[in-house]
TrEMBL record:
PANTHER family: HEMOLYSIN-RELATED, POLYAMINE EXPORT PROTEIN. It is found in: Cell inner membrane. CDD domains: CBS_pair_CorC_HlyC_assoc. This is Polyamine export protein. It comes from Acidovorax lacteus. It holds the Pfam family CorC_HlyC. Keywords: CBS domain, Cell inner membrane, Cell membrane, Membrane, Repeat, Transmembrane, Transmembrane helix, Transport.
Amino acid sequence: MRPARLSYMTLTQSLFVIGLLIATSAFFSMAEISLAAARRLRLRQMADEGDPRAERVLRMQEQPGDYFTVVQVGQNAVAILGGIVGEGALSPHFTGVLQWWLPASTADTVGFLGSFAVVTSLFILFADLFPKRLGMANPERVVLRLAPPMALLTTLLHPVVVFYSRGADALFRLFGLSSLRDERVTSDDILAMMEAGARAGVLAEREQQVIANVFELDSRTVATAMSPRDRVAFFLRDDPDSVIRARIAAEPFSTYPVCEGDIDHVVGYVDAKDLFQRVLNNQPISLKDDQLVRKVLIVPDRLTLAEVLEQFRQVHEDFAVIVNEYSLVVGVVTLNDVMSTVMGDLVSTPDEEQIVRRDENSWLIDGVTPVTDVLRALDLDTLPQEGEYETLAGFLMVMLRRVPRRTDTVTWGGYRFEVLDVDSYRIDQVMVTRLGESAAPAAPDAAA
């Protein structure tokens, strides 16, 4: 049954009331979306700058129940009134026009449907879509303007607000849910904001990558940034002066481990600056001098880069030797290695690049490149059995189930990984080629 028509109102009066109801509904729509979309960090900044309205909005976000109760009461009441007024105002005019071509009963029904469609369209466009998009465009500015009248309405409608708000609270308790807003900011939230900033042109792509690398410090192990064992230049405690000078010239580094017998028995390290001072002063170099050899920091290979940074801070060092669970040296790491991981190609030179893009569909990658860097370069989300390895070489070993040889290939995820060079069982270079979509297998396939 249709609602009774408001025949006592003229068309002009009815249209005025409909316009007023649409404006009221638009007010509630903007109030609702702007409070939900307003960023707390921005509001906090505005509050700290002395804007009392921002402080009020922050309190509303912490306890939004009464606020949204007023919004819903207002919107539903307006929607019902809009339907009644709209049908009563427009339906007779639609019916009168249609009766020229249609029977009276049919014209009455079509006129009612026409008036319903027109009023509904006006409310959807001007009371919902437009104001909500406007509120989303600049939510902080909008909510600051609408917060005072919403606070006044909350006070005036207090009995109604209490009734519905407490009823909603009871439903939350019944279902064991929390009605409080979760204000925790996670690393994913920050990374998403940085990505949005990069897309908007506010943040450079390289700057975004640096920030992403910082958050990876908690997940990347020290092995992903270290110089591996076979690339470590070290001295033995009893090396003569001539050997030390020759090694400095052949392998110039800032720091050298000092070992007793072999690399797995590290007794300290020597700084290249101290060695150079002795060379320039024509003094003999002897690593048996305890004043020359410093105490070295030893860290497990399971530590994350963030944990290594913390150890560097605690002992005021920037060099560490990395050992595995069997107390065997697996590599060394410096503060510069960790920071290079964060800064990426902002600080690396072409000779140091582990991933070299040859063309649009192929890359030349060092076997010791961390898996996280490979995934980023190839735009992949994951590799199979990721927990079993940390480098590209480890991935190939797991997939082949043996030590890779030159020309071995692995095809997975639309890419072909081909071993180009192996030096003493160490994979030096891997050619990665993107295949066509039809050539991408669902499961790994290895061939020797």
